[in-house]
Specification:
The protein has two domains: 48 residues, no CATH class; 38 residues, no CATH class. The protein is built from three helices and no strands. The chain is mainly α. The longest helix is centred in the first third of the chain and has 20 residues. The model has no long low-confidence stretch (mean pLDDT 88).
Length: 94
């Protein structure tokens, strides 16, 4: 890696590492008494993504009109209109 990893990436990696170790102990590949290295989760602080601009919201909603009508599989053709409704509901400003 060319830069210090973000905390969220380290948390994901640590979680996966702990599951691998737990599986190895469960299957008897390693003993519970064997010291396993602990991983650090101290990384670069994440930056909050800025809110969508009005132009981005308009572009998304315009795209979703045709996107909702598509879909390769039957389940996609059923779910896309519902997902479009969810996005519109989440973007609704009171």
């Amino acid at each position: 890696m060319n830069c210090r990893p973000r905390t969220s990436k380290l948390n994901n990696f640590t979680s996966a590492w702990n599951r691998v170790i737990a599986t190895a102990v469960e299957r008897g590949y390693i003993s519970e008494r064997v010291p396993v290295p602990k991983l650090t989760t101290r990384g670069q602080k994440d930056k909050t993504r800025p809110a969508f601009s009005k132009a981005e919201v308009d572009q998304l909603l315009a795209y979703m009109v045709s996107w909702a009508l598509g879909g390769r599989l039957a389940v996609e053709r059923e779910m896309r209109p519902l997902l479009r409704d969810y996005v519109e509901l989440l973007l609704l400003k009171l």
